[in-house]
Amino acid sequence: MSETFDVVILGGGSGGYATALRAAQLGLSVALIEKDKLGGTCLHRGCIPTKALLHAGEVADQTREAAHIGIKAELIQIDMAGVNSYKDGVVAGLYKGLQGLIKSAKVTYLEGKGTLVAPNVVEVNGQRVTGRNIVLATGSYSKSLPGLELDGERVIASEHALTLDRVPASAIVLGGGVIGVEFASAWKSLGADVTIVEALPRLVAAEDPDISKQLERTFRKRGIGFKVGKPFEKVEKTESGVKVTIAGGETLEAELLLVAVGRGPATANCGFEAQGVTMERGFVITDERLRTNLPNVYAVGDIVPGLQLAHRGFAQGIFVAETIAGQNPAPIVESGIPRVTYTDPEIASVGITEAQAKEKFGADAVETYNYNLGGNGKSKILGTQGFVKLVRQKDGPVVGIHMIGARIGEQVGEASLIVNWEAFPAEVAALIHAHPTQNEALGEAHLALAGKPLHAHN
């Protein structure tokens, strides 16, 4: 027997549950299908537990360095059982809250693996659920490289790293993107010897090159090793761990290898292709309104090509729910999505890089300004180095903001408003930024770009 809903959502991660909550809020009947746990990768195996681990590492570093500010403290040991308990407690609290939200919204929640068996029907646990609209939100999985098999013990992915009962004595991290540098940063703070291997010429290659240079400079000071422009060749098991061979025949040995080469779309065996959904390399292809080629079938989150970020999927879910409800929301601009990498130092950016701006507007039509955090009082107190880089269209709005420094991720909110509302430097310069805060650095950078630098050289 088939039950019919206004919206049937396949996947309960950030994109799926946001669709469900907003659709229910708008008076639509909703069924949400999830094979694992509500909240998806982000809540259980990604964003939240990773940041809890990074915070534990931050506390460890602060304890080691406390004497620099006159506090006598001693780091006795890293109790990974305690760290994991703290991490799991954060996740459990958020999970319970999310379950309550779904229940109170009167969303029909179906646990089990769903398969698209017709363009408007999903089968789960032998039950067929019909949707006047279908939303595909099946998320992503940790990728590996051809011939590189994960064993979950010595050759691991991020989800395995989050359940380790110890801090590895040494680790090789394959991949210098967001996931790789975050784990390298956390493990180093917790006491591991870490080396990153990256095939591209620089760490965090998707960021502005100035950001990469500063991160690499700081990682060197922290003792985090990295090999860039060095593709992986092979891994061998040894008595004590793994031996990794990289381009040029160089070998590295460590207790374990973390494979952090990105995430792939979790669309296999979901029935999408069988029902005629247009796919490319496993991704679901949509238009700017997140419609697939099938009528009334949408896709959101990591299965849609673009930035694989929880808040992107969340925003897309709201967008799709409002579209289905006939509200005609404005399409999401991909470049306007804020991005944060939670290393020490943190990286935060929104908009386009200097190179992208020059390609779009012409080299002579772009202006940039780097405001060094050395002139920012709060950053001096925190003992961090970094900068705020602004990219603007000459005589036009700010089109990119790129920041690096301790806790700088907290400043990405205003940066997002500046870029997405197409603010001119003079308009931001006119706003009063509280002193002493790192937020002042944004204000000072815009003052300088507007032609009136105070705590900066023009």
Describe the structure.
The chain has 458 residues and is α/β, with parallel strands linked by helices. It is 32% helix and 25% strand. It has helices at 14-25, 40-45, 47-64, 80-104, 158-161, 178-190, 209-222, 310-324, 354-361, 377-382, 412-420, 425-429, 439-449, and strands spanning 3-10, 30-34, 108-111, 114-118, 121-124, 127-136, 140-142, 155-156, 170-174, 193-198, 225-228, 232-237, 242-246, 251-254, 256-259, 263-265, 279-280, 283-284, 297-299, 339-341, 346-351, 366-372, 387-393, 398-405. The strands form 6 sheets. Strands 1, 2, 3, 4, 5, 6 and 19 form a 7-stranded mixed sheet that branches. It has a 5-stranded parallel sheet with strand order 8-15-9-10-11. It has a 5-stranded antiparallel sheet with strand order 20-21-24-23-22, sandwiched between helices. Helix 3 packs antiparallel against helix 4 and helix 3 (47-64) packs parallel to helix 6 (178-190). The model has no long low-confidence stretch (mean pLDDT 96).
Category from helices, strands and their pairing: alpha/beta
Shape: globular
Strand content: 25-35%
Radius of gyration in whole Å, from Cα? 23 Å
Please count the helical segments: 13
- Given as residue ranges, the uncertain stretches (5+ residues, pLDDT < 50) are none
Catalytic activity: N(6)-[(R)-dihydrolipoyl]-L-lysyl-[protein] + NAD(+) = N(6)-[(R)-lipoyl]-L-lysyl-[protein] + NADH + H(+)
Binding site for NAD(+): 175-182, 198, 262
Domain Pyridine nucleotide-disulphide oxidoreductase dimerisation: 337-445
Keywords: Cytoplasm, Disulfide bond, FAD, Flavoprotein, NAD, Nucleotide-binding, Oxidoreductase, Redox-active center
